[in-house]
Amino acid sequence: MIHDTDRKLRILAVDDDPVALLLYSRVLGDFLELETHETAESALESFKAKPADILLLDWLLPGMDGLELAARIRNLPDTNDVQILVVTGRDESDSLEQALHAGANDYLEKPVSPQQLMVRLEIAKRNLELRESKKESERKGALMLRVFDNSMHGILITDRNNKIIYTNRAFSRITGFESDEALGQTPAFLSSGFHSEAFYKQLWESISNHGGWKGEIWNKRKNGEIYPEWLEISTVVNEDRELTHFIAHFSDISQKKQNEEQLRYLASYDTLTGLPNRSHFLEILDRSLVRAGEDRSKGAILFLDLDRFQVINDTLSHGSGDLLLRLVSERLRGLIGPTDTLSRTGGDEFAILLESLSGVDQPIQMVEAVMTEFAKPFHIEGQEVYVSASTGICIFPDDGNDSDTLLRNVDMAMYRAKETGRNTYHFYSPEINTRAFEHLALEASLRRAIEKDEFLLHFQPLIASEDEMPVAAEALIRWQHPELGMVSPARFIPMAEETGLIVPMGAMVLRKACEAFMDLKSRDVNLDYISVNVSARQFFQEEFLGMIDSTLEATGMAPRNLELELTESAFLQDVERTVELLDLLRQRGLHIAIDDFGTGFSSLSYLKRFPLDTLKIDQSFVKDIHRNKDDMAIVRAIIALATVMKLRIVAEGVETEEHAQILKREGCNILQGYLFSRPLPKDELEAFLNARRQQNTV
Question: pTM for the whole thing?
Answer without folding.
Answer: 0.43
